[in-house]
Amino acid sequence: MKNVQLYDKSFKPYMSYEEIQKAIDAVAEKINIDLKDEHTPIFLGVLTGSFMFFGDLMKRITLECETCFIRLASYEGTSSTGQVKQMLGLTQSVKDRNIVVVEDIVDTGGTITELYKILNENGAKSIRTATLMYKPGSYKGSIKIDYPACSIPNDFIVGFGLDYDQIGRNLKDIYVLDPEETEKRKAINVR
Ligand code: IMP
Ligand code: MG
After folding, report:
1. Does the C-beta of 49 come closer than 6 Å to ligand 1?
2. What 3-state class would DSSP assign to 149?
3. What are the Cα distances from residue 152, in Å, to 2, 61, 86, 139, 155?
4. Quick one: which atom of ligand 1 is closest to the CA of 114?
5. Which fold has domain 16-154?
6. Does an H or E element contain 41, and which?
7. Ligand 1 centre and the CA of 75: distance in Å?
């Protein structure tokens, strides 16, 4: 696989589509077992980044369940702004419901902490979290991340739903920022 160029930055292959699918298999299996006695859970996808993971995860969930989405945003460029804004409210009631939050990536934990606050304020009965990617080295939250499909170092990644300034979400594999290649390309001015 080759590097991809997104605006001013070069990214190198990090995880293949097939590896991602295997990680999702494992997470789905655990969720199907753990929640088998829970009453009709709601899988809550956090937009936009989770859309690919959400689709692939839900195809493997064999439980009776509902699905819905919420949009929160805290990122500009390649680092967190630290402020989490609720852009699109909950589209259905979570009162007395068992919730499985489906995230693309848990980094500092700001987003997930804010989301738990919103869900608790709205009377959720239980909350669990499934995330495609988890950066334990960067995580500052106190909430337990129940189902991390993959744990990764503090590097910036794109693809499979994850973006760099809104582009790269459609890449089917995951790529990681390649600082050397980015500098090289800057020097020779290729894009
Ligand atoms: P947190 O609030 O710091 O945990 O950040 C969570 C959000 O930041 C994710 O839902 C992503 O939208 C974004 N994010 C964090 N790390 C990355 C990354 O490596 N690539 C792309 N987006 C990221
Ligand atoms: Mg996100």
Report:
1. yes
2. strand
3. 21, 24, 26, 11, 8
4. 2
5. Rossmann fold (3.40.50)
6. none
7. 7
Ligand 1 centroid to Cα of residue 62, in Å, is 28
Closest CA to ligand 1's atom 20: 157
8 in active site: no
Q: Which two tokens stand for residue 25?
A: 């298999």
Query: Which residues have C-beta within 8 Å of that of residue 154, sequence separation ≥ 6?
Result: 135, 137, 138
User: What percent of the chain has a predicted confidence (pLDDT) above 70?
Assistant: 91
Structure tokens, 167? 């582009």
Angstrom distance (rounded) from CA 107 to CA 171: 20
pTM of the model: 0.93
Q: For the chain, what is the radius of gyration of the CA atoms?
A: 17
Q: Does 109 contact ligand 1 (Cβ within 6 A)?
A: yes
The domain ranges of the chain are 16-154
pLDDT, tens digit, 9 for 90 and up, residues 117-145: 989 999 999 999 999 999 999 999 999 99
